[in-house]
Give the backbone structure.
Amino acid sequence: MTRDTLTEYYIGTFLIVISAVTFSTAGLFTKGVEAGSWEVIFWRGFFAAAFTTAWIMSRGTVRHDFPGMGYSGLAIAVIGALGTAAFISSFKLTSIANVSLIYAVSPLIAALLAWFVVGEKISRRMIVGCGGALLGVAIIVSGSLGQVRINGDLLALVMTTAMALIMVIYRKYPETPGAGPAVLSSVLLLPFGLLFGAPFEIESSEIYILSAFGLLFAIASVTLAEGSKRVPSGQTALLSSLETPLAPVLAFLVFTEIPNFATFVGGSVVLLAVLFSIRKGI
């Protein structure tokens, strides 16, 4: 690996970590408002699209990010819209801890998809890292909080698969812009938010909260897209699973949603698996 390639790898790693930390706040925004799932999806999408478009225009890359996204960008936008709708809705049906721990299986899905679609080899370190992440998930599941709602868990699994597939597409087509598809993904959900929800009937104070959610979601989406171009798909998913230990901690601090001992232990195992998988030289 050349010095330039290694630099790109570390930049990608940093961007994906930023994305994971930002995504870990999604449950706080979704559970912190009384608005329903489709109202949250609408306003999150509206503000995320607005903030990301403003960022694109400030960089002068409108032509690159929108007309230049190509078929791969369109596919990412559609898959991202599906994943986002499932992601936000899952928080209304199950605990933040359950959503985050299910997302931790994305390394295995991404690695398998990358092997099948891109032909990426799965290293021994990657296999051990995936095994560690799955072990952490198993520990968390063994002592999960309360009664698990199957619909929420299934939606979280849909989101996990969608995000893993997006990582693989970016890895196969690294020239695909990150911001344009993120905007289109948000815009695609707006008509559904109007159709199935009542976004203009919620309190203005909640709209302000959801505008902050839109900004953070925009940052998370763009950093994940840009980071995915620089890091193998499996490792991208493992880095993203840093959200798993972070989200339950934030839920405890804000909502006093108390994770049990197994959640703390499992989250620590996931974190160690991520750190192990990204070390170079073995």
Remarks:
- The CA atoms of residues 22 and 216 lie 6 Å apart.
- The chain has one domain: 3-278.
